[in-house]
Amino acid sequence: MAKTSLDKSKIRILLLEGIHQSAVDNLHNAGYTNIERLSTSLTEEDLVEKIRDVHFIGIRSRTQLNERVIAAAEKLTAIGCFCIGTNQVDLDAALERGIPVFNAPYSNTRSVAELVLAESIMMLRGIPEKNARAHEGGWLKSASNSFEARGKTLGIVGYGSIGAQLSVLAESVGLNVIYYDVVTKLGMGNARQVGSLEELLARADIVTLHVPETPSTRWMIGREQLSLMKQGSYFINASRGTVVDIEALAESLDSGRLLGAAVDVFPVEPKGNGEEFVSPLRRFDNVIITPHIGGSTVEAQENIGVEVSDKLVTFSDNGTTITSVNFPEVALPSHPDKHRLLHIHRNVPGVLSEINRVLGNEGINISAQYLQTNEQVGYVVIDVDKAYGQQALHALREVEHTLRTRVLYSGIDYD
Ligand SMILES: NC(=O)c1ccc[n+]([C@@H]2O[C@H](COP(=O)([O-])OP(=O)(O)OC[C@H]3O[C@@H](n4cnc5c(N)ncnc54)[C@H](O)[C@@H]3O)[C@@H](O)[C@H]2O)c1
Ligand SMILES: O=C(O)[C@H](O)COP(=O)(O)O
User: Residue 343 belongs to what domain range?
Assistant: First the structure.
């Protein structure tokens, strides 16, 4: 019987942007040893070159996996975003090539929520300016524009994992919480959903954004929205830089409508720690500027390293795509004495019956089978007797509308 799997040590894994050592350790423990780990992201040109021979890539928010890069990734099997956001990946381009994308939807949410609550309290007390003056030798002892959090209203835009967690923390210090979300959601504690973004902007003392980057959130906060905010209110953005018109935010700070802001994400961010950060917000002492570190805590990064590498290993070892953000979700218990075939195809009628027909024609008995589809793609996992693995793979490749096929042999096979 022909051995069909590629030795795990030949499976190339590229980890970028300083992904935590926990990911490397986890992959090693699962038998994957061919790992290159870089502390930075790569330019498009470098990525196109480097990704050619890579089976798995791990990135964070900075690496742009656009259509051109994905098209160059001839061997790429799965993408791991070691963060929450997946807007940096062309998810459709990956799907079209049968490449599932995974992320870590929960591991850094607490870190962001804690930071935002701390920033709210710091801004209410005017700490950013007082701190800046003291560093210059000044002494701004004053109660003017210095407030308790108790009884103020926090307005959360996007009540998902981070927004909801922040809501709980905020109520514990006496903030009243209102939130706006495109989906109707049950509030935590006494938090109340409002019917429109405009209502939230008009009622909140502090507005904080926790939406993903999508076409509906792009530039959702501009001059008009900021003009609806209360005189003397505060603004926080730790979501994505493209959600806010930063020039309009600077104008609101100049006009004094906003007493302060805290911004962690920017439309253009430096590619690495050595590059200059350019922003109209640099001139404001009452703005807390942080370098996209909302999720950058030791705890979050260690957990993310384990969570996403686990997902890559599980997919690599048995084809499971549960929690993939772009792919039909399939999990079939492993059958150690069988060969597992993975078949990814365009989601058009008749493919499954064609698969079963070609396998039947070859006299191949199917031990287990599971199909899931999304609008574009169908994903079938099929277990067959070991003696037929290679033959079944050849038969499946002939099925019309096939995007990709693979056979797993006591682990995995890569084309
Ligand atoms: N600064 C950081 O380091 C950092 C860390 C983690 C996450 N993030 C960003 O925060 C975002 C939110 O994270 P999450 O885990 O809470 O995501 P989530 O998906 O759990 O929640 C997002 C919420 O936004 C809502 N939403 C979507 N479009 C909306 C719109 N147009 N108006 C109002 N609400 C809308 C969704 O319904 C959902 O409830 C991530 O997508 C990521 O971009 C940043
Ligand atoms: O999407 C996220 O989880 C955050 O933006 C954090 O991204 P990072 O891993 O690049 O810090």
Answer: 328-410
Q: Which ligand is nearest to the CA of 239?
A: 1
- pLDDT tens digits for range 157-183: 999 999 999 999 999 999 999 999 999
Residues acting as catalytic residues: 240, 269, 292
Query: Does 258 fall in a domain?
Result: yes
Question: What's the number of domains the chain is made of?
Answer: 3
Q: Are residues 122 and 269 in the same domain?
A: yes
pLDDT of 386: 86
Same domain, 302 and 254: no
Residue 283 region, left (φ>0) first, then alpha (ψ -120 to 50), else beta?
alpha
For ligand 2, say whether the CB of 60 is within 6 Å of any of its atoms: yes
Residue 411: per-residue pLDDT: 44
Instruction: Identify the band that residue 415 occupies on the pLDDT scale cut at 50, 70 and 90.
Output: very low
Q: Where are the beta strands (DSSP E) in 166-238?
A: 176-180, 192-193, 206-209, 233-237
Sign of CA dihedral 266, 267, 272, 275: negative
For the chain, give the mean pLDDT: 95
Find the 371 Cα to ligand 2 centroid distance in Å.
32
**Ligand (nearest to CA of 82):** 2
Atom of ligand 1 nearest to the CA of 220: 31
Does one domain contain both 126 and 173? yes
Q: Which H or E run includes 331? A: none
Ligand 2 in reach of 187 Cβ (< 6 A): no
85 lines ligand 2 (CB under 6 A): yes
Closest ligand to C-alpha of residue 301 is 2
pLDDT class of 389 with cuts at 50, 70, 90: confident
Indicate whether residue 210 lines ligand 1 (CB < 6 A). Answer: yes
Q: How far apart are CA 192 and CA 189, in angstroms?
A: 9
* CA 81 to ligand 2 centroid distance, Å: 9
| Mean pLDDT to the nearest integer, 219-238 | 98
